[in-house]
């Protein structure tokens, strides 16, 4: 085993495999689990790492690939490894593991040592309430400091709120910013000096008999603000400016040279003043925020890293750190190293350096990553660190993994050909082990075409239909796009085209931004304010012609907020899962006035009820995932312009300079120009990295939808093509159930597998949702499964759900549950059993709820209630997931799972084998 190793692992090359092999090899060589500090970037990755190590240890000797590499790494024979297996498995299972996210590790340190920084150990971690914090900060300022703030805002034309975005950026850097005392009056003095030469240029052009009208217009200015916007001042000489060529001579060249020098001085003073005043205000804010956080007993995520760095660099030594953490780390493993921030590395650096100190003890350092997958620079990720650690620590060796275990040959070769031809972009060709695969670059003239906005995603719908007809299971298809807005728009479009197609989305979008919810909110605001703005918003969202009138009888004065939302959605026929979630969330509002003025602040996330189905997600969410078939969409909207006020220049990983961005300054400051060029190169690499991540998610088939103009794929010079043949899914698609009712007529999705009952058609209606919730609630409230308990629970149901359900509905619930408590099989299963209702289950990082969990005679029974007649596949998938989880957690084969279909005529128990 190489003691100090960096692994460059391209997408699909087995990075997790390598980490697992490394960890188990360390255990075999005598390392204790708590001594192996293993750091990842997400909770999901940390959980998966722990589980992967555990499973590999359990099955050690059965998987030849793992065993072969562990033999190679550890130096032990197969017999010796299997001899040690039970011991290291037992040690790992019973140990306090040191497998953390970096954020959790940093947080753990602060919790242990917060007393040294005057912070209570029960502090909360949450986002800053900027509105409140900024108001309190204003109140804290002296009159002199308040004047400086106002002067800066006026001078820079900055809104007060936008200052805090700049402050946040400075917080992330964790640098000391010392303001210089630059007199603002010097700026005006220098402006006058510039104007002296500017007017000489103007006089020369006006007196030139050959001057064109365009030349005369170019010197049409009376003051500095008008002059400084002229494009000709950025030229190196007046002869470079076409309109001045006829008037150019040595005299004009001399004046122009002096003018350029004075403008250069002006920008130095101007930028220096802006930076100095900004740093002064930031230091005031930083000092106030520290006091505010301590008083409120909470910290922002950035605060934690800053405080831990301060702690480790000035307050405590490593030995005391280890003593308090109850673990001395002799081995460090870091995953996704390209996403590490400078501040995180500064915190880890002392621990890494100790391991690399060169003594002969058993210490190792291993990190793995891929700079091509660095797509989080905007969050502080510093991909340069990967090579910086190699350059500054010569003991660390480097290896490159170049075999792709994920994608088929045609996909791998397409990616190789696309990226290997790029100049100044580190790329190592990969070798595929699977043959075949399909790649298509499709030039989509509908995508991002304003004239075809209503059918922007028509070709995507057609392609999905074709893939399904060609044997690709819709559950195996993922659509990758750039933004959450794109995800929402594509989801809405496909739901209209394929009403019964199951679609899963990975979104962090707010509930209030979902199409139907937004429509309901605008409708209610229209009822309240009677302003056409909200009516036209509503028309636009639901696809009506402008000026369409609404004759909706909604009483907003005498009804509850929930009733208003319910009635509005019903009248507009907008009810879906998200509107239902809005109704539930509206219990927080006391009245309609609260709703109108507070709804826009609601942070609740969008509802995503589907656990299986065609997936739509952003490229950023797809990182680390893989899919059978990928539809990759171009950037639909142009990337937002960089509006940051500051430009940071680094020398390797060290902050070299900070510049205040001012229009045209690059023409007068060579250092700034070089820093700007560096930033542009980094931004281009960011775009290439996003494309690389996106194009390496597909295992079998990849279809790229490329815009005809201004395509992000132009960076790779991609042209229309089709390579190979579509690879079918292993399983037939059962994702859709009403294919013959698809609205999009040109598509033929085949015949449905079984008729759909009327009850199933209204499965997603508001009534069905509340009927199901009320039924579950009644069962949850029953202390025993007998008539007395049922009568009591039904009274609770009446009190809670009478606004949404009729008396006969509640009687129907009672009738169904009575069928269950009289069911002989059910009575026998729960007799003398201890049971928990609504049992929480955390498995593989996901929180699930089991309706009824019973234990009897060391046997475990899972019951899941359904109020539908149809026995759907997703019901079985869901409950089988519970069964698998309980079997693993309890280490038992005696786990039995049942779906209980609570129908009107019977309570039917279906056991899952």
Outline the structure in words.
Residues 737-764 have low confidence and may be disordered. By secondary structure, this protein is an alpha/beta fold. The protein starts with a strand and ends with a strand. The strands form six sheets. It has a seven-stranded mixed β-sheet with strand order 13-14-12-15-18-11-19, sandwiched between helices. The chain has a six-stranded parallel β-sheet with strand order 3-2-6-7-1-8. A hairpin with a 2-residue loop joins strand 20 (834-843) and strand 21. It is built from 32 helices and 24 strands. It folds into five domains: 4-109 and 305-401, 3-Layer(aba) Sandwich (Rossmann fold), CATH 3.40.50.300; 128-296; 403-507 and 608-753, Rossmann fold; 511-601, no CATH class; 766-912, Lambda Exonuclease, Chain A (Alpha-Beta Complex), CATH 3.90.320.10.
Note the topology.
Blueprint: E1 4-9, H1 15-28, E2 36-40, H2 43-58, H3 64-74, H4 78-94, E3 99-101, H5 102-113, E4 124-125, H6 130-140, H7 143-156, H8 163-173, H9 185-206, H10 213-218, H11 224-227, H12 250-296, E5 298-299, H13 301-315, H14 318-325, E6 331-334, H15 342-355, E7 364-369, H16 384-392, E8 397-401, E9 403-408, H17 409-419, E10 431-434, E11 438-443, H18 458-469, E12 477-481, H19 484-497, E13 503-506, H20 515-529, H21 532-542, H22 561-572, H23 577-585, H24 592-598, E14 614-618, H25 619-622, E15 627-633, E16 646-651, E17 654-660, H26 670-695, E18 698-706, E19 721-724, H27 758-761, H28 766-781, H29 787-801, H30 807-821, H31 824-830, E20 834-843, E21 846-856, E22 859-866, H32 873-890, E23 895-902, E24 907-912
Parallel strand pairs: 1-7, 1-8, 2-3, 2-6, 4-5, 6-7, 9-10, 11-18, 12-14, 12-15, 13-14, 15-18, 22-23
Antiparallel strand pairs: 11-19, 16-17, 20-21, 21-22, 23-24
Helix pairs in contact: 1-2, 1-3, 5-13, 7-12, 9-12, 13-15, 20-21, 20-22, 22-23, 28-29, 28-30, 29-30
């Amino acid at each position: 085993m190489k003691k100090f190793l960096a692994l460059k692992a391209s997408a699909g090359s087995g990075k997790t495999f390598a980490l697992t092999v490394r960890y188990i090899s360390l255990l075999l060589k005598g390392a204790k689990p708590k001594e192996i500090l293993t750091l990842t970037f997400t909770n999901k990755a940390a959980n998966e790492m722990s589980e992967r190590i555990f499973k590999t240890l359990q099955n050690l000797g059965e998987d030849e690939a793992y065993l072969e590499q562990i033999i190679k790494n550890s130096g032990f024979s197969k017999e010796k490894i299997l001899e040690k297996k039970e011991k290291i498995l037992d040690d790992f299972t019973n140990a306090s593991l040191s497998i953390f996210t970096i954020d959790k590790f940093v947080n753990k340190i602060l919790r242990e040592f917060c007393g040294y920084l005057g912070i209570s150990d029960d502090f909360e971690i949450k986002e800053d309430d900027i509105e409140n914090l900024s108001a309190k900060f204003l109140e804290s300022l002296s009159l002199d400091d308040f004047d400086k703030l106002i002067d800066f805002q006026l001078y820079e034309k900055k809104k007060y709120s936008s200052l805090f975005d700049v402050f946040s950026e400075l917080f992330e850097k964790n640098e000391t910013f010392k303001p210089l005392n630059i007199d603002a009056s010097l700026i005006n003095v220098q402006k006058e000096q510039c104007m002296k030469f500017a007017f000489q240029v103007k006089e020369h052009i006006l007196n030139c008999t050959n001057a064109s009208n365009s030349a005369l217009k170019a010197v049409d200015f009376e003051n500095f603000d008008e002059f400084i916007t002229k494009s000709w001042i950025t030229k190196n000489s007046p002869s470079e400016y076409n309109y001045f060529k006829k008037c150019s001579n040595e005299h004009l060249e001399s004046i122009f040279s002096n003018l350029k020098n004075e403008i250069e001085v002006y920008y130095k003073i101007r930028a220096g003043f802006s930076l100095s005043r900004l740093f002064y205000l930031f230091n005031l804010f930083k000092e106030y925020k520290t006091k505010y956080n301590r008083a409120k007993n909470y910290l922002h995520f950035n605060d934690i890293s800053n405080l831990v760095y301060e702690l480790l660099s000035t307050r405590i030594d490593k030995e005391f750190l280890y003593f308090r953490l109850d673990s001395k780390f002799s081995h460090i493993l870091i995953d996704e190293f390209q996403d590490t921030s400078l501040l995180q590395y500064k915190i880890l650096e002392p621990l890494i350096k100790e391991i690399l100190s060169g003594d002969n003890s058993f210490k190792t350092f291993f990190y793995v990553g891929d700079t091509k997958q660095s797509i989080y620079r905007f969050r502080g990720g510093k991909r340069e660190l990967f090579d910086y650690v190699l350059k500054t620590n010569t003991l660390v060796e480097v290896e490159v993994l170049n075999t792709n275990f994920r994608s088929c040959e045609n996909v791998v070769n397409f990616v190789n050909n696309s990226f290997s031809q790029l100049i100044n972009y580190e790329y190592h060709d990969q070798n595929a082990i699977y043959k075949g695969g399909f790649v298509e670059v499709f030039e989509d003239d509908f995508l991002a075409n304003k004239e075809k906005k209503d059918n922007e995603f028509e070709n995507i719908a057609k392609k999905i239909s074709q893939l399904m007809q060609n044997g690709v299971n819709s559950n195996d298809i993922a659509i990758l796009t750039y933004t959450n807005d794109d995800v929402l728009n594509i989801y809405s479009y496909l739901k209209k085209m394929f009403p019964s197609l199951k679609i899963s989305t990975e979104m962090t979008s707010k509930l209030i931004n979902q199409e139907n919810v937004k429509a309901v909110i605008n409708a209610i605001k229209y009822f309240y304010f009677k302003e056409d703005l909200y009516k036209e918003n509503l028309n636009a969202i639901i696809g009506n012609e402008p000026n369409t009138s609404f004759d909706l009888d909604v009483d907003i004065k005498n009804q509850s907020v929930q009733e208003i939302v319910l009635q509005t959605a019903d009248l507009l026929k907008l009810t879906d899962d998200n509107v239902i979630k809005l109704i539930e969330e509206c219990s927080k509002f006391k009245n309609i006035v609260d709703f109108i003025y507070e709804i826009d602040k609601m942070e609740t996330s969008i509802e995503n009820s589907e656990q299986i189905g065609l997936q739509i997600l952003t490229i950023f969410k797809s990182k680390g995932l893989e899919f059978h078939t990928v539809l990759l969409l171009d950037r639909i909207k142009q990337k937002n312009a960089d509006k940051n006020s500051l430009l940071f220049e680094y020398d390797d990983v060290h902050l070299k300079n900070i510049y205040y961005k001012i229009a045209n300054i690059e023409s007068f400051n060579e250092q700034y120009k070089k820093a700007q060029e560096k930033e542009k190169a980094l931004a281009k690499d960011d775009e290439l990295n996003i494309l690389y991540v996106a194009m390496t998610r597909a295992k079998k088939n990849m279809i790229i939808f490329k815009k005809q103009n201004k395509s992000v794929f132009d960076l790779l010079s991609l042209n229309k093509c089709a390579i190979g043949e579509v690879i079918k899914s292993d399983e037939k698609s059962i994702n859709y159930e009403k294919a013959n009712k698809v609205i999009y007529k040109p598509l033929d999705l085949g015949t449905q597998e079984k008729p759909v009952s009327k009850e199933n058609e209204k499965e997603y209606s508001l009534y069905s949702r509340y009927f199901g919730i009320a039924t579950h609630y009644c069962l949850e409230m029953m202390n025993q499964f007998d008539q007395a308990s049922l009568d009591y629970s039904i009274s609770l149901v009446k009190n809670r759900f009478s606004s949404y359900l009729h008396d006969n509905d509640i009687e129907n619930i009672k009738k169904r549950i009575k069928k269950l408590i009289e069911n002989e099989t059910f009575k026998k299963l729960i007799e003398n059993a201890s049971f928990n209702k609504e049992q929480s289950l955390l498995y593989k990082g996901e929180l699930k709820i089991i309706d009824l969990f019973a234990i009897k005679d060391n046997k475990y029974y899972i019951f899941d209630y359904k109020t539908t007649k149809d026995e759907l596949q997703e019901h079985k998938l869901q409950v089988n997931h519970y069964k698998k989880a309980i079997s693993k957690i309890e280490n038992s084969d005696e786990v039995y799972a049942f779906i209980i279909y609570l129908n009107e005529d019977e309570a039917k128990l279906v056991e899952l084998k």
